[in-house]
Amino acid sequence: MERPILEVKHFHAWFGTHEVVKNVNLTLHRNEVVAVMGPSGCGKTTFLRCINRMHELTPEARTEGQILLEGEDIYRMSPIMLRLRVGMVFQRPNPFPHMTIYENVLAGYLLNNIKLSRSDKDAIVEDALRKAALWEEVKNNLKKKGTFLSGGQQQRLCIARAIAMKPDLLLLDEPTSALDPISTAGIEELLQELKKNYTLIIVTHNMQQAARVSDETAFFYMGELVEFAPTRQLFTAPKDQRTQNYITGRFS
Amino acid sequence: MHLNSIKHIRRRQLISASIRGIVLFFTVLTLLPLVYILIYIIKQGIGAINWSFFVQLPRPVGEAGGGIANALVGSVLIVCVATLMAVPIGISSALYLSEHPQGRLANVIRFCVEVLTGIPSIVVGIVAYDWLVKPMGSFSAFSGSVALAIMMLPIMIRSAEETLKRFPTHLREASLALGVPYYKTIMKVLLPCSLSGVLSGIILSVARIVGETAPLLFTAFGNPYLSFHIFHPMHSLPLLIYNYAISPYDSWHQLAWGAALVLLCWILLLNILTRMIIRKWSVRY
Ligand SMILES: Nc1ncnc2c1ncn2[C@@H]1O[C@H](COP(=O)(O)OP(=O)(O)OP(=O)(O)O)[C@@H](O)[C@H]1O
Ligand SMILES: [Mg+2]
Fold this sequence. Notes:
heterodimer; A: alpha/beta; Rossmann fold; globular; B: mainly alpha; MetI-like fold; 0% strand; binds adenosine-5'-triphosphate; binds magnesium ion
């Protein structure tokens, strides 16, 4: 069997003395889509931010255990290299306000001083925007500032910015929670497309969304990974009582 | 409606109107002298303005005509050198303050900035005299620039810090999550996004010191000839105004008024520039 792209082993994370992620174990293979679900405050965002080492930017933050990206311990890599390989899309769209749409897509290259020829740039921008299902809407306005777009378009721009770096793994933290239903549907369609080429971890509160887009679902409760199973199985025959309670809506 | 409550409303409207009247009165009262000064300077100064006023040197007493070329060049040079010195120090201090607002050094910087704001300009001039003019053995434009640079710092640091502090975390994280190192995030995201605020702070601090006379008295000192050498004495507009205004000659008074008008226009232009920069380049988060 092929080497897993991500292995999480006995992983813990703290804010000060507050243990937010507790002993998580999880294995993820290439081109899989994992949905991360759980009640508010259970540590989903924190867990996600550990995978690209954004967690450690918070003062007092601490971790224990191992995360392996293609067999390599991420806490032994430089965070810069790691973040080039593991992209992230945030809950709130955050295009760079001082850059045009074109520059925003290339931001990972431009800000890192990675030199590209004009034709390479054009190709990357078009490809990323097409994959993010934004190309048709913005192809005539590439020189406009990214912040002129609507919220849903901005979020797709952020997805384009992340996939322009051709990451091995893409982390999405509630990418549709700030959006209206139509933009949400657009992003979900896009996630279906992205599945073909990328490995995704998506935090979501929306069970239909999880059911629609993911192959496997991880259910977190109070920092613990309670259940990690193929999505269909987790929704139809959960093994743990807490998962059962959550999907039947007995607590939010 | 109840008669009593109508009366009550009437009373409130009356109070409201009278307060508005008082506010208006005092506004006009503050504006009046300002407008008067402006008109007066323009009226007195406009007569002195012509081509030779800008390109000629002052003539000896008794000869008509002459200009303020030496002071104009001197002022521009001294202010430019001062800006070049103050900007790196001011902006890096502001960066430090906004990045480490709680740090020990931050408190020291803040304290220094506050003290610096309160120091009279003449004292800054004396300090520059002591530090530079005495050891170097001569008055110099450079020492004047140092004095002005010190005076620019507080305004620059304060306004830049205000702008930099407003930079939102989600944009910083957007950059870091793309694998951009911290210092590049600062240079290529934080600073460009804050450009309009930082620039307008710089320009405002320039506008603040363009007209300073006291720090230049024992530093740049003044020079009747045109000089481009920043380690020699140099003339400047405020010095010229000061010297000519206290002289007994009418023709010199005339030049002083003209120079005052030039100074006024310069400051006005800087303020307009600031507004344009803010309007054009400001970034909404
Ligand atoms: N910067 C921080 N400093 C200290 N504690 C934090 C910080 N961020 C989050 N926490 C705490 O960590 C816990 C988990 O937060 P986290 O954001 O990971 O939850 P979440 O599952 O993403 O919740 P939500 O669904 O509301 O986004 C919470 O109890 C929260 O109070
Ligand atoms: Mg969250």
